[in-house]
């Protein structure tokens, strides 16, 4: 699946409508294979983004959990630490003077 689509459920603060639409756009791009549709496909593409976004928002609004909400800053820090461990931290070399 598309790696750019992030989990949006159970965060504090909740996912914004912009985040839901961005995920819908990424999903439709993945399905269609278009980063930007041609003029002939633009209307269908944009309609799909709206419909997927609406369906995603309905899903997020209807889900329930007993788990405490996750903190976005903590999750971002975890992702960065995981990435640094996996790919290594880039080392900057300064030229000798």
Tell me about this structure.
The structure is a single chain. The relative contact order is 0.15. The radius of gyration is 18 Å and the shape is flat. Helices cover 58% and strands 4% of the residues. The chain has helices at 17-32, 39-62, 72-87; strands spanning 11-12, 70-71. Helix 1 packs across helix 2 (39-62). It is mainly α. The longest helix is centred in the middle third of the chain and has 24 residues, at 39-62. A two-stranded parallel sheet has the order 1-2.
Brief digest:
The protein is mainly alpha-helical and about 100 residues long. It has helices at about 15-30, 40-60, 70-85, and strands at about 10, 70.
Write the layout of secondary structure elements.
Layout: E1 11-12, H1 17-32, H2 39-62, E2 70-71, H3 72-87
Parallel strand pairs: 1-2
In terms of per-residue confidence, which ranges show pLDDT below 50 for 5 or more consecutive residues?
none
Helix proportion range? 55-70%
Average pLDDT number: 87
Total strands: the figure is 2
Mind telling me the C-alpha Rg? 18 Å
Q: Quick one: overall form?
A: flat
Distance between the termini: 48 Å
